[in-house]
Amino acid sequence: MTALTHRAGRTLRVALAVAFVLPFARPALAQETDGARATVERFHATLLEAMKEGPKLGYAGREKLIAPAVESTLDLPFMSKAALGRHWAALDPATQEKVRMAFTGWSVANYASQFASFGGERFETVGEGDGGQGTTLVRTKIIEASGKETPLDYRMRKSAAGWRAVDVLLDGTVSQLALYRADYSAVLERGGVDALLTTLAEKTAALEAAPPKPR
């Protein structure tokens, strides 16, 4: 299993609320959630391709394959801003752009590093529901060859660019965005934005140099 899901406890689960709508509104809702679901499933298809072709592609090939999928699935500008919390407003536009670029580079490197080999895993979409605050929650799971299942849910929001994930819930409950915010806040408190940019660059370089993890 990848580090993406290992960071959260295996036993965590969440009761997800399902939105109830009037009969005449159901076709519109179905169309909206189908769009969110399709975005996630396209992303998963790319991750599976990277895993299956991982050794042949190498890191550079996986990065090239995964980068467009990451940028068209995750709302990276929103996530980089939200991850910095109150610190974001104190940054000038040029520094904000540096943070966005560093966060994007690290995000792509993380996926290219973690989804590097195939061990019989598959993704399965469980369903969709109300994610709160105008979002749709696409519930999925990763199923290992052994049959072990790990929930992986995406909180999706529609924008002019299409459906994008504004958060990913590890094990179905643990907000990836909240983990980022906690990590980044500690770095920012210690050394400011320069320390954060250095940390992101170092983490990205380490992922690029790391050998694929066996499955």
Describe the model.
Mean pLDDT is 86; it is low at 1-33. A hairpin with a 2-residue loop joins β3 and β4. It contains 6 helices and 5 strands; from the N terminus they run αααααβββββα. The chain is globular and about 45 Å long. It has a 5-stranded antiparallel beta sheet with strand order 1-2-3-4-5. The chain has a single domain, classed as Tgt2/MlaC (Nuclear Transport Factor 2, Chain: A). It has helices spanning 3-6, 26-52, 54-73, 76-84, 93-114, 176-209, and strands at residues 122-132, 135-143, 149-159, 162-170, 174-175.
Protein traits:
215 residues; alpha+beta; Nuclear Transport Factor 2, Chain: A; 5-stranded antiparallel β-sheet; 6 helices
Distance between the termini: 7 Å
Helix content: 40-55%
Average of per-residue pLDDT values: 86
Based on Cα principal axes, name the global outline. Answer: globular
Structural class: alpha+beta
What's the helix-strand series? HHHHHEEEEEH
Low-pLDDT residue spans: 1-33
| CATH superfamily grouping | Tgt2/MlaC
